[in-house]
């Protein structure tokens, strides 16, 4: 990796845009709340951020796409990085992380080599941890000068003010070592000998005793073997100048070891410094893991997180959001990555031909590598080019290669797809999100024995409903007849009943303080105009108040194939479906401006709740004959 890093940086600098993807050791710890269709962007962030700190990235894919305007050809350099936070010293972090058996089993089935992950994986450090280690190393090296007597300094245990006394039980061992050293000093044919590995305490005794007895006749140095055991190498005594050179070489080796430990973080930092467009597919989890592992711990506050994103990666685009937005939504039946790639090769879209740079994987006719991070990054970039070129074809005159006109995809910039939330289509990293009217949504608490049929029967007076289960004793209920919302509390809430209904607004205002129901309520028979599902889908966790910071992430396409937007986890739609609406872009994109946080401070202080001035809406509800109207001014 160290030898290839300059070439990787060169590829990033040369790229027209970058595509990323990551694979993880798991997605959910099974103890936190699942996502649902009435999450707000802040709630979704709180639910998924914990996954970034509990699970580990094992593979990171980077595809650097370059368009040559003279030859009108695309080229790509694709990288697969195996990631493992190997502790390089006793002072370095000893990382703990969770593994989810289903996730590991899936990755193994897709050909991920875990032996390579753990044997050859590239380490990483966040800037804050790196700085702490630099300060510690600098302090330790200064102490070498303060206590310059070699008798009181061990090669791996620092400095001591006085030599240690050899305990009775270790005297025979130390005497044997001294005998080996004495024989070595008499044998002029050898330049050095390696003592048997032993623990740190015995190495300290060896170092101090041998130096006291043999003075400058020998030079001792610690060595780490391939099996991670440590031993002492005894060499012939050096001159004072030679010893100084050895000391400087040792210090330089320690600094180089720290540089190597920074590892893959250098790639992410260079991507950030380059300011290049970064493209992902359903990229929210990829973004969370990237920031947490390689930049800084994710803040609890959602607005601080958005400021952090805008500073580290100022230009991002989510191809899943593009595929689920007009003018693509009516033309793309599924936005799963593999299927999306196939759809974009057929009319009205045009297949994009991309050449792999010599020495890099050629994925053009290879569909067997799905869920390899590098391949998924490549396909993501391919889909971005295909959709961007389609936007160019809608202009007058048509633009054949959209990468020459980045303003075509500006309406999607810094927006992240929000899975399964139909009335908030995206998370806006550079402005405010949509704030939909949810007056037709109610929160209900009920006895544990209740089923969907009971809830639907209770709301029969106001028509058909959608039930979104939160846990065994609570759910959200959405009315299809929104005009009936003002009747619900008066018609349904009755004194002495074993259930309690409140508005969505009251629930989020923290007014949901009611004792849990203590008795069952007899089921009402289902009414004839309600098509009830056979059973409910419930989460086994108790009701929460407001936000839960220990929230579980949603299972993404990387581990388990995602259900497309037709359904919702924990949701049961009772009878009628919502009326079809579709969305439209504004007539021209707004300038989102530059990130307002200084890049040099992005990882130490993300508390500045700075936002871009862009609050422009991407979506408006109109009939489905909308067309793409952006950039017609060219």
TrEMBL record:
Source superkingdom: Eukaryota
Domain Poly(A)-specific ribonuclease RNA-binding: 431-509
Cited SUPFAM superfamilies: R3H domain, Ribonuclease H-like, RNA-binding domain, RBD
Record's GO cellular component terms: cytoplasm; nucleus
GO biological process: nuclear-transcribed mRNA poly(A) tail shortening; priRNA 3'-end processing; siRNA 3'-end processing
Region (Disordered): 513-538
One protein family per Pfam: CAF1
Gene Ontology molecular-function annotations: metal ion binding; poly(A)-specific ribonuclease activity; RNA binding
PANTHER family per UniProt: POLY A -SPECIFIC RIBONUCLEASE/TARGET OF EGR1, MEMBER 1, POLY(A)-SPECIFIC RIBONUCLEASE PARN
Family indicated by similarity: Belongs to the CAF1 family.
Protein name: Poly(A)-specific ribonuclease RNA-binding domain-containing protein
